[in-house]
Amino acid sequence: MMHERRPLLAANWKQNLLWHDIESYCEDLRAGLPDYFVEDSEPAIDLLICPPLCYLGLVGALLEDSHVYSGSQLVSMEGGGAFTGEVSAQMVADLGCDYTIIGHSERRNLFGETEEQIGRRIQQAFDHDLVPILCVGEDLETRRAGREQSFVLRQLDAQLQYLGDIDAGELVVAYEPIWAIGTGENASAEDAQQMARLIREWVGSKVSSKVSESVQVLYGGSVKAGNIVEYFSQPDVDGALIGGASLSSESMIAMLQACLAQLRI
Ligand code: PEP
User: Which of 27, 39, 159, 169 is the most interior residue, by most CB within 10 Å?
Assistant: First the structure.
């Protein structure tokens, strides 16, 4: 099966792993994924690691000269200045990162992030050439009430003013139903496809048809080696955002290999 867009598997480590864990993780990736560490190879699937901010430099150094991308889980909404504790998009880009996760449900729900704050982070990402991975997704109550589509469309509409001017290839949207994150409970592959299609159509009608063809739509929520291919084989799902199962290099390699095998069919 061929994907129209370049597939992406993104690891969100959240607030996990320490220096020595990261050293052995990256060493195992080098051993398990030799193609990703050869300069003139071009792996068929993009791989992205999003460690805690304080380890971005370490991950960048350990994965240097590889085709594995790195990204942050957060960027400041401010460009720079007296904002104690904050890390700007410019700093993240300066560390060699290409992506940043924005609007993750844990940020929205545990840290009270508003749509306006999410939009300002997206703006910062664009200003410093980071590709934002915008996370959207409904809670269980909304899903039970059958209102998940209007919920996600509202989240997207709230970001329209920040996404209006983008060019093709600059945006990733992750559909992450909150009830499936870290719970072991999954959305069905059909649910993921339906929502990915909806997101792509929204981009087509509100942003541009060019961006709708290139936007990478990921599914996230208890993805693991045993189920990733179900999602990956959906026509509008271009990969996955993976939390728990990305914490072990072994399972990350297994997920990648399962997707590579699917591409060869
Ligand atoms: C996430 O936090 O983005 C996520 C999808 O987590 P998990 O894979 O653990 O459900």
Answer: 159
